[in-house]
Structure formats: C-alpha cells, structure tokens
Design a protein that fits this description.
Largest sheet: 8 strands, antiparallel
Distance between the termini: 38 Å
Number of helices: 9
Structural class: alpha+beta
Strand content: 25-35%
Radius of gyration: 30 Å
Length: 729
C-alpha cells in the first residue's frame, strides 16, 4: 500500500485525503444508513473501508471507521437471515452484495478487523444458499427481478450435454457443486428445493414461500419452477420492463404482465383474475423466525406446504379493494422413484361468495436468435377439457404431462403473445417482451374447493411412466405405473393422502388424516402430517412432518446504545428558536442535494420558533433546513418518531464543528411516511439538524415526537449565530 501511495505527489495525496473525508465520506455516510438500498449501502460502506484504511492517519479516520464497522455490523444483522438468505428477494442484487463482501475480505486479508469477522461467515452462508438452490442447468430460480436464461437443447444427444458446460454465452450459469444432500429447505427465507440428484438431467422443483420483505420481490407465494431431463418446463416469466423501451408496443403493452406486481408471471393460483395483494407490513429487517411451512425430505419423498392469506387485488389499480376472504393452501409431494410431483391446491373461501380460481402455468418460449431459449411454441402446449389433461407435445425433446382432478368442470385457456389481454409474455432482460405460452386452468369455487394436479416429466423418446390413470372419488385418482407400482391419491378440504405401493413395500404421506388403516394395520401419529413406510414383514414406521418452531434467535440488535455527550452544558448566550434556510428546486431532486443548496445559496434565512413548515403553505417544490440545539433535561434513552406525509424529512443529532455528518437518526421518504428510532443522550444541549423536502400536492405537517408524548416543537430549542462560520449551524 505505502509503495503505491509514494508514487503520488505528497501535495496531491494530501488533497485526495482531505477530499475523501470532507467531501466524499459525509455523502457516503448519508447514503449508507439503514434505510438505504442494500446493494448501494454495501458499495458505499466498502468505499468507506478503503478510505479509512488507506488514509488511516486522518483525524476523522476513527469516527468514519467506527461508523463504517457499526453500519456493516448492522447491515449484516438486518439484511441476512439465519439460514443465509437475504432480506431482499432478488438474487442479482444479493450476488452483488456478496461480491462486495468478498472484495472487502480480500482487501483486508489476514488483517480483517475483529469487528468485521461476521463478513466471512455471511459470505459462507450465502454461498451455501446458492449451492443448494442451483438448478441442474447451473442457474438459480427466478426470485425478484433476476433471470438466468439457461434454456439450451442439451437433450439432443450426449455430446450436446457435454458441450453445454463449455458454452461461453449462457447467462447466469455457474458450475454445479454437488452437496452431500439432494433436497434442501431454507426455512427463514422460504426457499425449498426438491431434486433427484446433481446431474444435468436430474429432476428439480423450486417452491417459493418467502414473506413480504423490503426490496425487489414478486407476487409469488406458493409458486413453483420446474426443470427435468435438462429442460426448463415451468418458469417465471422474466424481469420487469421498468418502463424501458416503452416506444416498443409489446414492451409497453406487457409492462404490467412482467412487473413485480403481476399475478400472471408466477406458477401459483389467482382469484377472480386478481393477484396476491400481500396486504401486510413489509419486513424491513431480516426476520428471525422461520416461515410457517412444513418441510420433509427422505429417500422416498419430499414434502412442502404453505398457506397464503394476505388477500387478492387488482394490482393495476392502487385504489382497488383487497379481498381478504380467500386463503390458498398448497401442498407439494415429490415421489422420487418415478419421478413425479403431486400438487394439491386447497382454496378456503370464508364468505362463501362464488369465485373463479385460476392455476397458472408459464412455459419458456422457443427462441432462436443467438440468445436462444429452448422452450415451446404455441402449438406445443396442448390440453383436453374432457379428460382434464394438458402438457407439452414436443416430438424432439422432453415433455411434461399434467393431470387434473377434483372440479367437475375445468376450463383450459392458452395464451401466447396475447395483445388484447396482454397475457403470454416472457423477458430475457429488462425492457424486453417476447411471446411465450401460458396455460390457465380455471374452475369455480362452487364446483370444488380444491384442485389436485399430477406433474409427470418424461425424457426425450421415453414412455410416460403412467400406464393407466382414473379418477377416484370426488378428488383423487388411482394410477398404475409401468414399473408395476400403484399410486393412490385422495384429497378433500384440508386432508391429503398419498399411498405408493410397489410389491410388498408400502409408503406414503398423510396430512390432516385423523385415523389411517392400511391392510388392517392402524397407523397412528400425534402430528397432523407424517410420512409412513413399511417393508416386507415389517410394521409401519412413522416420520412426523412439522412446522418449524417459533423461537427467536438471540441477537445483539437490542443492545442499549451508549449515551451521547452533550455539546453544551447550558443555554447561556443562546437564542430560542431554530435557524431556518429555504431553497427551491425544479423537477426531481434528492433531499441531500436540496439541503446543499439551502446551505450554500438559500433564498431565505430567518429564525423560526420551531420546525413547522406552516409558513410555506401553498408553495410547491421547496426545502427547509433547520439547525440549532435541543435541550435534554436528564440522561436517558430517547425514542424519536418522525411523521412526514407527502414529504421527505430527516433528523440528525451531531456537531458539525467536531463530527462528520453521518446518517439521520430518523428519516422518511416516498416509501414510508413514518420512522422511529432510539438513541442515548446525556443531559445538556445537543446539536440537531432537521431537513425537509416538500413533494407536489397538499401541504402536510412535519411531526417529531419524543418518547411517544412530547412534541419536539414544544421542547426547548435554541440557536446561536456566533458559532464557527464553517458550521452547518
């Protein structure tokens, strides 16, 4: 490091160091606070680490380094779940964060500070998530707005499979790293993978049941993605356009279909054409409890289930009502020896109104333009309403057969680049929209609460493993397989029973079954869901399948903060009120930039009684900067609540003559009009800075409450014009 720095002129090096701390560090500290976008926050904190390590002799280095390490620790706690997953459900951003952490770890090498040791365990845990989720084609399932385009015709012959790993233009592909397990759950993230092995043609299903969390996401609870025999069968339809290429008619028309709010791009169930509303508070820090999904894996079966109960709405209309009267329960069972999957969708209608349910299946398109996708054309998606069977029909590749049971009437609808309803689209990248086949399976709530689905993938030129299949009861079937085995499935309301028998071996999965007797032998379990199995001349063995416990992991996030020393002991010589500086802006502008304008070229400067913007009622596009002192009467931990509808606002407690400007204590913007945080303050006067940017529209109040009952504007506030001229006060 010193050898490289010695190559720079000493005067220029001093100027670089001064600028790094006085100009860049404050802005980085502003944008690296908790409310910042995670991937941008990680880049900024990495930059601060470089500054404090390279220019460690600066008088500001201890403050910035302490801030940097505190913020890294806070980010790693708040942004990474106990199972290694991220708060933000978008793998492209997640991977960027890991690259930043990896680079920082390598930068420090063996000198990694103890305060940053958590970085190494975080990298290891996140990479373990990627290893567990990686598909047989080397990509990751689509979560958020990432999309690995991996559809290549690797099944043509043995050589194409070998050459696939040598291709250079395969977006998102990484080498498979076979693990000691096959199937795996990440229960805090809500990610579940069922797989038959670690080979290119191994069957693979991804089940998504993550909670609404901050950042990019989709309406994809209980959605699946499926790959088998080297072919992507069921996919998410790709990243949003985000308004790019809006001059291209298809990109403009399919904008909602491909958006994060779309209910049509994920393989789940929608209600009356309405998407999942996810009508609940969004987690802004990593949850410390697992998702309420059962998970089980054995040599015979994998099992996962989940319940979505956060409502349905027309996401194209922000004012549309939310229907909270329907819940969706989905159970998925992987019968490994065949292989095939059984899916049971149980719709719970609490107000008994008639509704239309739609099970959505999205298939990848067939594209040959250099950036190929080995999917399906419109004619290769087939269905028959009478037999309740559908699937793919490609004479030159692997196929997927789908069977439905339960409703008396099932209506299949196929869409492919539909420009009337704007259904049946796919994107390989942001801003693109190309036609793709979608299949909608519709049934009425009055006909049946549940829909039972059988998914059977088969290799190129291979026979269907189902020799014969017939409905059984109101919602079930009996299938004879070509290997001589027999598969029986029955479902009703919240009950599901799967029995697989091959010779004298009997095994299966039971859910919600109060009593079970097979061949005159009673099977008892104290749990609602379990696997049962019996070999030749054996009694039945039971493995219970339960929802993970609710205990919260221990965390240091609740450590009490240290008390900040007062900047002044008393108000002697001070003037009541706050200094207020007024600035205006045109079009879009960030709060940070408006405040710089208010500091350097204010249009008005005056002493205000408090921080109220009432004087400027009726004005548009303006900002206010209040600075001064807040008197605290005793040592303690104080909770500040900031409410600022229709405006960005921030409250800082720091002394500009002694400290670099760090992140605000509380902060509001377009994402949230309320912010609450606590800090420790010693008795005396503390420098405060209040920033306010009014949005277009009706003027709203700026409210700051201390400890839930004391308005800041009624507290003792002071200002003095005799401070250092460089001061922000």
């Amino acid at each position: 490091k010193s050898e490289e720095l010695n190559k720079i002129d000493p005067v220029e090096l001093a100027q670089i160091a001064q600028s790094a701390y006085e100009h860049h560090a404050p802005k980085l500290m502003w944008f690296c606070r908790e409310s910042s976008v995670p991937n941008q926050r990680s880049i900024g904190l990495t930059a601060l680490a470089y500054i404090t390590e390279i220019f460690a002799e600066s008088k500001h280095a201890p403050q910035v380094k302490q801030y940097m390490t505190d913020q890294w620790d806070d980010m790693l706690k708040g942004n990474y779940l106990p199972d290694g997953g991220n708060l933000e459900h978008s793998f492209n951003y997640n991977q960027q964060e890991i690259r930043e952490l990896d680079g920082l770890s390598k930068f420090y090498g063996k000198k990694l500070p103890d305060s940053l040791k958590r970085i190494e365990s975080t990298i290891k845990a996140r990479k373990a998530v990627d290893d567990g989720l990686r598909t047989p084609l080397g990509g990751l399932p689509q979560v958020g707005n990432n999309q690995d385009v991996l559809g290549q015709n690797v099944w043509v012959n043995s050589e194409t499979g070998k050459k696939y790993w040598e291709l250079t233009k395969v977006r998102g592909r990484s080498p498979l790293r076979p693990q000691t397990y096959t199937s795996i759950a990440f229960p805090y993230s809500g990610f579940y993978v069922m797989r038959g092995g670690w080979e290119l043609k191994s069957p693979y299903l991804f089940f998504m049941n993550g909670r609404p969390q901050r950042g990019h996401s989709m309406r994809d609870n209980l959605a699946i993605q499926l790959t088998a025999f080297g072919r992507q069968f069921l996919v998410c339809s790709g990243p949003p356009t985000y308004g790019f290429n809006s001059n291209i008619p298809d990109a403009k028309g399919a904008r909602h279909y491909l958006s994060e709010e779309s209910g049509f791009k994920n393989n789940t169930v929608i209600v009356d054409g309405k998407a999942q509303a996810r009508n609940t508070k969004i987690a802004t820090r990593a949850p410390l409890t697992p998702v309420k999904s059962r998970w089980h894996t054995s040599s015979r079966f994998d099992y996962v289930d989940g319940c979505y109960d956060l409502g349905y709405t027309d996401t194209r209309n922000k004012k549309a009502p939310v229907d909270m009267n329907v819940k969706h329960e989905r159970s998925v069972i992987f019968v490994k020896s065949v292989p095939l999957w059984i899916i049971y969708d149980n719709m719970i209608n609490t107000d008994k109104k008639e509704r239309k349910y739609t099970q959505i299946w999205n298939f990848p398109p067939l594209i040959n333009d250099g950036n190929n996708v080995a999917g399906f054309n419109d004619a290769q998606i087939v269905y028959d309403c009478a037999s309740k069977k559908c699937g793919t029909a490609d004479t030159d590749g692997p196929n997927l057969d789908m069977y439905h049971f339960g409703p008396e009437k099932i209506d299949y609808k196929r869409y492919h680049g539909d420009r009337e309803n704007w259904l049946g689209w796919y994107s390989r990248k942001i801003g693109e929209a190309v036609p793709a086949p979608d299949l909608h399976v519709n049934w009425q709530s009055g006909d049946s609460k549940g829909l039972l689905t059988l998914l059977v993938p088969r290799d190129k030129d291979a026979k269907n493993p189902i020799r014969s299949i017939s409905p059984e009861g109101n919602n079930g079937f009996i299938a004879t397989l070509i290997n001589g085995a027999k598969l029986e499935v029955t479902a009703s309301s919240r009950k599901l029973l799967v029995k697989y028998q091959n010779g004298k071996e009997i095994c299966g999965i039971a859910k919600g079954v109060e009593s079970l007797s097979i061949e005159n032998e009673k099977i008892n379990s104290s749990k609602e869901c379990f696997e049962f199995s019996r070999g030749d001349n054996e009694t039945f063995k039971i493995i219970d399948i339960v929802i993970p416990g609710k205990q919260i992991l221990k965390t240091s996030n609740t450590d009490k903060p240290e008390l900040r020393a007062a900047d002044l002991k008393d108000a002697k010589g001070l003037t009541p009120g706050l200094l207020c500086r007024y600035a205006e802006y045109n079009n879009k502008a960030r709060l940070f930039d408006i405040m710089k304008k208010a500091e350097t070229a204010p249009l008005e400067t005056f002493i205000a009684k408090n921080h109220s913007p009432e004087k400027f009622q009726g004005r548009q596009r303006y900002g206010l900067l209040f600075t001064g002192y807040l008197e605290v009467e005793k040592d303690g931990i104080y909770t500040f609540e900031l409410n600022s509808p229709n405006a960005d606002a921030a409250l800082f407690i720091y002394n500009p003559d002694q400290e670099l400007m760090g992140p605000p204590l509380v902060f509001t913007d377009y994402r949230s009009s309320q912010s609450i945080a606590s800090t420790g303050l010693k008795k005396g006067l503390h420098c405060i800075r209040i920033e306010y940017k009014h949005h277009l529209g009706k003027q709203k109040d700026l409210s700051i409450i201390i400890d839930g009952k004391f308005p800041l504007q009624e507290m003792k506030l002071y200002y003095t014009p005799t401070l250092n001229k460089k001061s922000s006060l």
